[in-house]
Amino acid sequence: MSDIKNEIKKRRTFAIISHPDAGKTTLTEKFLLYGGVINTAGSVKGKATAKHAVSDWMEIEKERGISVTSSVLQFNYDGYCINILDTPGHQDFSEDTYRTLMAADSAVMVIDASKGVEAQTRKLFKVCAMRHIPVFTFINKMDRDAKDTFDLLDDIEKELGIPTCPVNWPIGSGKAFKGVYDRKQREVDLFSDTRKGTSMGDVKKVSIDDPEVDGLIGTEAKGVLEDEIELLDGASAEFDQDLVDKGELSPVFFGSALTNFGVETFLQHFLSMTTSPLPRMSDHGEIDPMTEDDFSAFVFKIQANMNKAHRDRIAFMRICSGEFDAGMTVWHVQGQKEVRLSQPQQMMASERKIIDRAYGGDIIGVFDPGIFSIGDTLTTSKDKFAYEGIPTFAPEHFARVRQVDTMKRKQFVKGINQIAQEGAIQIFQEYNTGMEEIIVGVVGVLQFDVLKYRLKNEYNVEIILENLPYEHIRWIENTEIDLDHISGTSDMKKIKDLKDRPLLLFIHEWSIRMTLERNEGLVLSEFGRS
Length: 530
Ligand code: G4P
Prior knowledge:
Helix content is 26%, strand content 30%. The protein is of the alpha+beta class. The strands form eight sheets. The protein has an eight-stranded antiparallel beta sheet with strand order 28-25-27-26-30-31-29-32. A seven-stranded mixed beta sheet has the order 2-3-1-4-5-11-6, with helices on both faces. Strand 26 and strand 27 form a beta hairpin. The protein is globular. Guanosine-5',3'-tetraphosphate binds next to helix 2.
């Protein structure tokens, strides 16, 4: 295998998905600790500093202390080169969070053991399921009183519709959490004090058949464990790597990110079970990084306003095949032009650094003079193929936009189109009313503030947003349907996007079902084509 293919083969590019506060940041930090990137846990996180030290690009982030952008962290562990795609943790997450998942080959789903599956996890999981990527579950906070372990698994299976397969099993929870039982090795893994998670600690592995176990975890705990294992062996799905690869079975691990219990065990198993960079679909068929030699990448995120004075932007791209060299010239498929990729950068812990080489599986950010759009392909291949586009994700909040000074129409149109092109908001128009008013849709309400702020600061345009009550949007898949004849519910509104494609807005979710029932043959989708 060539050096480049070897580099690609050792890459593991994944996203961590969770509901805020489940422990995503803490777990990421512990991965960095084991990767030797940081020496003491606590140096990445610390709510006051690090959460936005990673991305202090926008004033609004600093003002509100919220990370609007997502970041990518790269580090090495045990011969692997790991790329973690972090997703904004705040409730007001944006479409970027979803798009980040398009760049990942697998996902780690962190669940709070006292809460089970929560709203944001559900939404992010749906996107993973759409892509059929492997999802690994880490049930966190076992050092606190947890829900019943079987109930937690049941919750995942019922709520998310994915069968689970526990790779290990917790021994007690809360103060009595001692470690985990490794089902395949048939041994208990006991963790030493890690000084509240600041050091790595030791793992003691003892066979379940060793009489020493009784003394180590107590006879009662051992009895409970044996009963649970017996029940589990009879009830749960068997581990099947093939199903895991297809995203049809989620391996489950238990631990406590805070105290480092089970973190390295999880990391090791996860790395061996997850996938190296996967092939991606293009208009010339599947492009496999193991057979394609040329460089290719697609843009999945555009970060604006890195430097307000220059209105510069950074385009984040996922490299899918080949090698990237700083300053290389590539073909921009959608722009039909050669471009030089300048100022390539990568995130290392909380710093951004300029890089000169990267490989398939890596994420890089390059300077964007305003030519890239989300989903664009860049390649050195003579084939000039284009990767499959990135879907448009359903906004959940809508508002009508009014300009304060109608004389500034030109700046307003320019600004709002630019911001929409970067993917921060989606813009729609009234359907058949003749009104020129614009409706904006966002995934997280914070994007409304971002829009207002940026239009004022960058385009000198003030707007008023009038919130609309709709929460659900659906794209109409069958183009032959005549929108005029769709009979919907009273809370339904017809709109169109800028390409004149019709869409439906609903206040209530049940109205979608009713509209489908009333209009035979109508096909609605939660994901739009870009
Ligand atoms: P997030 O990125 O998913 O939003 O979660 P984050 O890691 O920030 O963790 C949220 C809170 O949960 C933090 O507490 C963190 O210390 C705590 N936590 C994370 N993992 C565990 C765990 O395994 N066990 C326990 N008991 N707690 C855990 P905080 O008080 O909000 O912040 P801080 O003051 O500790 O920084």
